[in-house]
Amino acid sequence: SALGRVMQLHPSMFLADTYLKYLGWSLSDMAAAVRAASLSQLSAVYTAHGAAEEICRVEGKPVSGAERLLNFTRRFESRFIEMVRDVDVKVAVEAIKFVDLLHDLDLLADKAQAVREVVRVMRNNEPSQLKALVPLVNKQMEAGGGGAAPPPPPCSAA
Questions:
Q1: Scanning 16, 115, 121, 147, which has the fewest C-beta atoms within 10 Å of its C-beta?
Q2: How many C-beta neighbours within 10 Å does residue 150 have?
Q3: What are phi and psi of 144, to 5 degrees?
Q4: Three-point CA angle 112, 102, 67, nearest 5°
């Protein structure tokens, strides 16, 4: 968690793949608490800097937070989505919330596909997972990706 705090405080220096990869590697740790902490720190970093217009300059050109996070996000995107099915419910809930954040920041390679993958956890009927899914499902439906409701069945003649 210390690395995540340093990234938040000094993004121009530490918000780079060189440092982000350590949080990425810990997403596969055997201990659920480590996986959950990594997702929590990544959420804090992305929340703080994902939408930042400029966190540093490269050759005099402004670099946004999203630009700095894009390569890392693409590298670990499949793992983030996979983690929504983690055996530990707390980790799964953190992963759902993190994928929702990536959706908000427009950092997912294919938003609709990511949502389809994440929504599959609805089958688990775990209340905390279902609650975490609500914002993501609402956004997808508002964007028109939820599909139209089927028409009601025809009335029978009385």
A1: 147
A2: 6
A3: 90, 5
A4: 115
